[in-house]
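In this supplementary section we document a worked example of the pipeline. Step one takes a protein sequence of length 168 as its only input; no multiple sequence alignment statistics are reported here. Step two produces a three-dimensional model, which step three serialises into structure tokens for compact storage. The input and output of this example are shown verbatim.
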Amino acid sequence: MSKVSHTRKSRSLAQGRLDFSSKQTELFSQLENPNRLDSPNASNLDIHHELMGACHAALKEARERTWTRERVVDRMNQALPEGEKPITLRKLNSWMADSKEFHDMPARYLPAFCWATGSDEPLRALGHALGLALVDERELAVQRLGDLQVQGFRQRRETAALLKTLGG
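The serialised model returned by step three reads:
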């Protein structure tokens, strides 16, 4: 490697480090305030691409279960009130097409879509944008069990310390 190209490479690496440190500061501020709802500054919350990717992944999961888009539409309609205008395959395809600008799925249909595809990825994408995590009931129970075990450990330790203080 010539000395000139080595110098250019070193300079670009140094410049990259400077850029990295500025992103590192941003990362630390996000760790201090992980919930973006409490943030005093607005961040970019346009999640169109993330949400579309999650919806496509949900449809792929449904396809892996051998569910067609028609079956997904039927399941969505099953999950929605009778008085609603039924969702059609054409409407679902329009919502999922990248070429259809201004044809996003209304948020009120998202729970039905998730149930119909058997995937919670679109909901996870929404939560992630705000620094929140979607946790199911089992995960909540595991967390509660862990909290109770820690609490029990602390109580046993405190009891042992008191018994020791009392000479028992």
